[in-house]
Structure formats: structure tokens, C-alpha cells
Amino acid sequence: MNQAILFPNIQSWDEKRQVVQFAAQQSGALIQCFVEKAKLEQLTMTTIANQEQALSVFAQCRFDLEEIAEELIEEEAFDDEGHIVIG
């Protein structure tokens, strides 16, 4: 793992967008990262019905999701708003 990219243990569920939001920090800059509900369901082969399940599944897959986010940050694969979206 690249030590220049850090992932604080902060995450939240966005009901409207159906994503778990988490942060990455690179050279002092905060980067908002999102993982879509469908991706979480695909990774765990489960159905997510609520916020509690979404955050629990995120916690189970956190290491893998951070690796994916790290690769996307290094590839500068940001969306139009400067976010990383794993979908």
C-alpha cells in the first residue's frame, strides 16, 4: 500500500445516492470516495436493505475497497467533481 494515500476510519451511508462515502488523504488533500450499493452487493453476494447493512458490508470489504480506491487515485480516475467512484 502506498503510504502517501491514507484512509481515515470515517464512512457514512448516503441514502439518496445509495453509496457509502469514505475519505482518502493524499499529500494533505482530502479526496471523497464513494462505493455504490450494487458494488457492495456484488462483492459480498448479499442484498443490502438498510444503512446498517451497507456499513457492515463496507467494513467487511474495507481493505479491498481501499486498494481499489488507491489504484483509481493513482490513475487520477476522478469524476467531474473530483471524487473517486467505485461502481
UniProtKB/TrEMBL annotation:
Gene3D superfamilies: Shew3726-like (3.30.160.140). Pfam families: DUF1488. InterPro entries: DUF1488, Shew3726-like_sf. This is DUF1488 domain-containing protein. It comes from the Bacteria.
